[in-house]
UniProtKB/TrEMBL annotation:
EC main group: oxidoreductase
Molecular function GO labels: enoyl-[acyl-carrier-protein] reductase (NADH) activity; enoyl-[acyl-carrier-protein] reductase (NADPH) activity; NADP binding
Pathway: Lipid metabolism; fatty acid biosynthesis
CDD domains per record: ENR_SDR (cd05372)
UniProt protein name: Enoyl-[acyl-carrier-protein] reductase [NADH]
EC number: 1.3.1.9
Catalyzed reactions per annotation: a 2,3-saturated acyl-[ACP] + NAD(+) = a (2E)-enoyl-[ACP] + NADH + H(+); a 2,3-saturated acyl-[ACP] + NADP(+) = a (2E)-enoyl-[ACP] + NADPH + H(+)
A single GO BP: fatty acid biosynthetic process
Binding site for NAD(+): G14, S20, I21, D67, V68, I95, K165, I194, R195, T196, L197, S198
Species classification: Bacteria, Bacillati, Bacillota, Bacilli, Bacillales
Keywords: Fatty acid biosynthesis, Fatty acid metabolism, Lipid biosynthesis, Lipid metabolism, NAD, Oxidoreductase
Family under the similarity heading: Belongs to the short-chain dehydrogenases/reductases (SDR) family. FabI subfamily.
């Protein structure tokens, strides 16, 4: 891999299993020589994260719980990172959730608590994580978040998650404006659909994958490795002039 992140440390939030996009990012950064810190939500993921991390080249020892819906949990997580690592060079936010019943049917039937839950986990979490991470991120650091085109235009069944992603993408721009004076860049990767644990929550997912193969300019679906390599670029100095940006890694689908 041409990009070197040797001597750099990144926090990766949201690895659930080997299919996670967060895991694709982890593998690319590991290949680029970075030291990685992992956080997981809920101890049911701890063992699978530990087992996966053991397969990487580098020895990434810091693996911590972090419930982004709990301010104290986020504060304790970053206090532990400060204590165990000192400073970091960036963070990958790969966290989202919405109730499955809100990811199908009529958008007008969205419930108040379904709306709030989706925004709490899928959008506000980036802002509170950035608030604590900015104290640890060195000059020249970089934050990367994951989004989907359903936050820019209507994609059937994506519903409330699309509204939350629109909020996330605008949060990326406001955070870029705020943290730029500290030399911290904030960008998002808009990934094409990838089969993950999360995509099981979206009805009719297979139809979308087929549509991409038929219509996307590259006529193939997106892979976690492609997203991982773009993340490595956004963490590297090769992207030092880019902030507040959304890069589409989607075989070109967004131009249609
Ligand atoms: C109609 C659009 C089909 C392509 C969707 C691509 C996609 C797949 C997964 C994505 O991430 C999530 C994350 C959590 C999520 O909520 C879930 C996931 C599983 C179970 C559950 O109860 N909620 C739904 C999507 C995402 O943001 C975007």
């Amino acid at each position: 891999m041409s990009i070197s992140l040797a001597g750099k440390t990144y926090v990766i939030m949201g690895v659930a299993n080997k299919r996670s996009i967060a895991w694709g990012i982890a593998r690319s950064l590991d290949q680029s020589g970075a030291r990685l810190i992992f956080t997981y939500a809920g101890e049911r993921f701890e063992q699978s994260v530990r087992d996966l991390v053991a397969t990487l080249d580098g020895n990434h020892e810091i693996i911590l719980p972090c419930d982004v819906t709990d301010d104290a949990s986020v504060e304790q997580c970053f206090a532990a990172i400060k204590e165990q690592a000192g400073s970091i060079d960036g963070l990958a936010h790969c966290i989202a959730f919405a109730k499955t019943e809100e990811l199908a049917g009529n958008f007008s039937d969205t419930s108040r608590d379904g709306f709030l839950l989706a925004h709490n986990i899928s959008s506000y979490s980036l802002t509170i994580v950035a608030r604590y991470a900015k104290e640890l991120i060195s000059e020249g650091g970089s934050i990367v978040a994951l989004t989907y085109i359903g936050g820019e235009r209507v994609m059937p069944n994506y519903n409330i998650m699309g509204v939350a992603k629109a909020s996330l993408e605008m949060s990326v721009r406001y955070l870029a404006a705020d943290l730029g004076r500290q030399g911290i860049r904030v960008n998002s990767i808009s990934s094409g659909p990838i089969r993950t644990l999360s995509s099981k929550g979206v009805s009719d997912f297979n139809t979308i994958l087929r549509e991409i193969e038929e219509k996307a300019p590259l006529h193939r679906n997106t892979t976690p490795e492609e997203v991982g390599d773009t993340a490595a670029f956004l963490f590297s100095d090769m992207s030092r002039g880019i902030t507040g940006e959304t890069i589409h890694v989607d075989s070109g689908y967004h131009i249609l």
